[in-house]
Amino acid sequence: MVEWFYSTSIWITLPIFVGGFVVVSCLVVLALRPFVHRLVTDHKEWDRALAHVIGTFGIFFGILLALVALSVYENFAYARDTAVEEAGRVGTMYRATTLLDEQDGEPLRTAIDEYMHAVIELDWPDQRRGVLPASSDAQVDEIDELLSDIEAEPGHEQAAFQQVLATFDVFIESRRARIDATALELPILLWLVIWVGAAVNVVLLAFLDVRNPRLHLLMVGLLSLYIGLVIFVTADLDRPYAGSIAVGPEAFERVLEQVIEGE
Questions:
Q1: Most CB atoms within 10 A, among 159, 162, 218, 247?
Q2: Do residues 109 and 147 make contact, with C-beta atoms less than 8 angstroms apart?
Q3: CA end-to-end span of the chain, whole Å?
Q4: What does pTM read for this prediction?
């Protein structure tokens, strides 16, 4: 079910998720209305107590949703920044290899080109499925071996080689951050709290003693619509590399097109 949510178009998941949330909320209201009408005897006392409960709960639930949404967006932004940073490091490293002798630089550039294709064509599909990618490990090991075999002459070549080494070290750190971001997601316990809060919110709205059923359903439907949208966006952003709002390999594709293949 979870994989279906992240692999299906937003034009399908959005109406199903939000529409289903609204429909369930309205059904709960319809089911509880007869019970509420029998239970309420003093309308003023009931409204006063219910207003206090809904107001207090609304503050805590609203703060929870806001903090969760902010946390999820920060994870998304982190994953996006690490991907952009890694792509930039690869471009810098590729340019630095042009300063080496042809016999040393050409194999490195070939390995970097293969690495970029592996990231775009193999790593990213794995990341969309929430799997830590390992397809590009072979290219990284090859680049590392090629660098260890280089014996740069003192002077200009040595300086160029040191630049490539420094860029490679930073690139490895950026790559590790990009891969680790694949596992970023909210804990199951936190999702449980969100869904329990959403259920409690619907029940409290159903306790409103509104005599006109259409007006009651309209009030509950509009509020449920907004809460459902917030939860949907939070769920969609929860996996940075999956869903309709996801970090894609565009940064790598630009570097591959403009820097590597554009040479």
A1: 247
A2: no
A3: 45
A4: 0.85
Of residues 123, 101, 161, 168, the one with CA closest to residue 141: 168
Closest CA to 8 of 258, 168, 242, 248: 242
Domain spans of the chain? 1-39+186-238, 57-182+239-263
Task: Give 25-81 pLDDT, tens digit per residue.
Answer: 999 999 988 888 888 777 788 878 888 898 899 899 999 999 999 999 999 999 999
Q: What is the C-alpha to C-alpha distance for residues 3 and 20, in angstroms, rounded to an integer?
A: 18
Q: Decide if 148 contacts 169 (C-beta within 8 A).
A: no
Q: Are 116 and 249 in contact (CB under 8 A)?
A: no
Q: What is the distance between the alpha carbons of residues 202 and 263, in angstroms, rounded to a whole number?
A: 60
List the structure tokens of 210.
């509104």
Distance separating alpha carbons of residues 162 and 164, to the nearest angstrom: 5
